[in-house]
Design a protein that fits this description.
The chain is mainly beta. It is built from two helices and 19 strands. It has one domain.
């Protein structure tokens, strides 16, 4: 069983309840800012109520008091994670950023995903929450809890807060209705602001890192806050919003396509280049795609 936990709540991973030197995301003695792995059927944990897999990366860590349940670390707010039901069954985490960058990570055992040294691919300053493309402040002599030299793992994709303010993790599409979406990661973003609903739905090419937007999604038809994603039978992907008493399945009725306008796939893109924080370089390019499936994901 995998469990994802945020860094503890205070902005910038600092303050009461946070490691003053490294933040909780980088502190192997706390479960905060981590993805954990346990065995619900085992009993070798400290309280004997669950097991710790013997191949967890830090079960024999040299750093004192390392949490042996840690599978990977360096996260701010992993919301949420899923395994690809096909391919290599990749674990994918959507990590909500602080004030600038939202990211998607391909997660591997023992990986360090940077927070709070970095936000996405940018250097992060925990004293003020600012980011910069100048990585000279990011530590380069890092070791993991086993004492092995490591490098921080960058996200497979990211976008800045001109595009959305809180990523909502989804699923790799493995359905049969839309072959053009096969292997693409379908996810959302809560909104472009906290005051007015403007949630968005996207899909990501996990190989190229290109993010495309479903033009006929919630934002264009009936703006809503996107609050969660789910996966139903036959790998159908669903989203939940503030007007839903249950998750919405993305089909023609839910998205209110006009009669006669349903086209599973078209071939035009409009690109939106995201403005990077403080003009530090482009953090993302999102394609607004009329080539996107209008009947999103069945």
């Amino acid at each position: 069983m995998y469990i994802a936990l945020g860094d503890g709540g205070n902005a910038n991973d600092v303050g009461d309840g946070h490691n003053a030197a490294t933040g909780n995301g980088q502190d192997p003695t706390t479960v905060l800012g981590k993805v954990l792995r346990i065995d619900p059927h085992g009993n070798n944990s400290a309280n004997h109520q669950y097991g710790i897999p013997t191949d967890n990366p830090f079960v024999n860590a040299t750093t004192p008091n390392t949490v042996k349940e840690i599978y990977s670390y360096g996260f701010r707010n992993p919301y949420r994670f899923s395994f690809d039901s096909g391919g290599t069954h990749q674990l994918i985490v959507a990590d909500v950023g602080q004030d600038n960058i939202e990211e998607i990570d391909k997660v591997t055992k023992g990986g360090n995903y940077g927070w709070h040294y970095k936000e996405g691919t940018f250097a992060f300053d925990p004293t003020n929450g600012h980011v910069t493309s100048d990585l000279s402040t990011v530590p380069t002599n890092l070791t993991d809890p086993n004492g092995s030299a490591i490098t921080l793992t960058d996200p497979v994709a990211e976008y800045d807060h001109t595009q959305g303010i809180a990523i909502v993790g989804g699923f790799v599409y493995r359905g049969s209705l839309l072959p053009q979406l096969q292997g693409k990661y379908v996810f959302g973003d809560f909104s472009r602001s906290f005051g007015a609903p403007s949630g968005r739905l996207f899909y990501l090419d996990l190989t190229t890192g290109e993010i495309s937007e479903f033009l006929n999604g919630l934002k264009d038809i009936n703006p809503q806050f996107v609050k969660g994603m789910g996966e139903g039978r036959r790998s159908r992907t669903l989203s939940a919003d503030e007007h839903c008493s249950r998750p919405r399945r993305h089909h023609r009725h839910c998205l209110r396509n006009r009669p006669g306008t349903f086209h599973p796939w078209r071939s035009r893109h409009r690109r939106i280049a995201a403005r990077a924080p403080a003009s530090e370089g482009v953090a993302s390019t999102i394609s607004r795609s009329s080539d996107a499936p209008k009947c999103l994901v069945q």
